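In keeping with the milestone schedule agreed at the kick-off meeting, the structural modelling team has produced records for the first pair of proteins. Each record is given below as a sequence line and a structure-token line. The laboratory manager (R.T.) confirmed that both were archived under the project's standard naming scheme.
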Amino acid sequence: MTPGSLQGLSGRRKFLGLAAAGAGAVLLAPGIHLIEVAQAETGPVSNKVRWGLLIDINKCDSGCTDCVTACNTENGLSGRTTPTSSQWIRKIEITEVKTGRSASLPVMCQHCAEPPCVDVCPTGASFKRADGIVLVDRHLCIGCRYCMMACPYKARSFVHHPLTDQKPTVPRGQGCVESCTLCVHRIDTGGGPACVEACTKAGHNAMIFGDLNDPDSEISRRIREVASTQLRADLELDPGVRYQGL
């Protein structure tokens, strides 16, 4: 590729990014726009912290969807499971071929330390925060869906339809890709993911959220004490979501 063609490609990407940003200025309510919400200050984010999840599948019942329901409610998702609906967390059933043992586990964006979705994004819309949370900037997303193809966990969804009744804390946009954010809007105000809160409130206690970099955190202590697994560890993406009993 010649220098001229590279410059042209860069120019097109910049234009598309600006166009996406303009299109993202969707009115949520009188005086509130998505772009304004996205630019709101949330305080400093440090790489001293790495947020993660530990999910004990031994405590995760096959028929339980409390985490899925909580995610849908918190983020304004429809809860439908059609091919054109958004799912930020889903329950899957797995079976050990040799023993026939089956298990149910929730799967969401794994918030990888080396996220392939970020690597393939042509506009920089997919990015990883300093604290390990992988997000999508809807004002830069052009809907190419390269990230969806790159994700080995099938954790991303494309917004096919117009959106109504959005929540100001969770801006979304038609024509954009989206996925689990670990409820970043709650984390930035001192809370945790809605799925974990619902699981704990229901008494299942199958999910632990915390700082993987803090050796004294509950999640770090548990990972030292029990065997845990990363999905597709062979890809060396270093997911921030770990599974116990898998």
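The second protein of the pair:
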Amino acid sequence: MRVLLIEDDLETARFLCKALSETGHNTDHAEDGELGLQYGLANDYDVLIVDRMLPKRDGLSVIEHLRKEEINTPVLILSALDKVDERVKGLRSGGDDYLTKPFAFSELLARIEVLMRRRAPDMEDAELKVGDLTLERMSQKVSRSGKNIQLVPREYRLLEYLMRHKGQVVTRTMLLENVWDYHFDPGTNVIDVHMSRLRAKIDKEFEQSLLQTIRGAGYMISDGA
């Protein structure tokens, strides 16, 4: 799942990005409202986590602008303002849920899961399929020909990204930016190592190989159809 976190408190942002990554979520971070709005307009996210009080543009303004642009991604508002009228104002601005600070990460994660369940009937890609390989985004379950496949969070994010781009060549730069959150090449074989582990799990015991290495270009997942 791809998350946009718009939060100006860097300590809170670092904690949330790390915790969300450990639970298998790919998180982009914007530290002010203007940058957050740019990210929200330019990218496709599964959920937005928006702090109420932000520099340059406040959180409610960001949400209202996105809604005017018909971007209906679920929004969880974070705020230290806990009065009823403040929560109502946040929800009426286009937010889907409102969580007051301080909060437990387990509650934030549970609220995200609820938002995703509400959205599930309208999600075209709630289930990703390539041949007999299936990835269920809500439960993060992966199976092939009915056999469950256990993936660690990074492998899951890698497979999800490949399946969302099935039949397309995915470059190393695309993977570094969208799976590892690197905007530079660290000069290591981290992609090759994870790709090898992923291939062993989804292809090794099956007659048809789905994961392909496109020499000099990148990788592609396809059932050959």
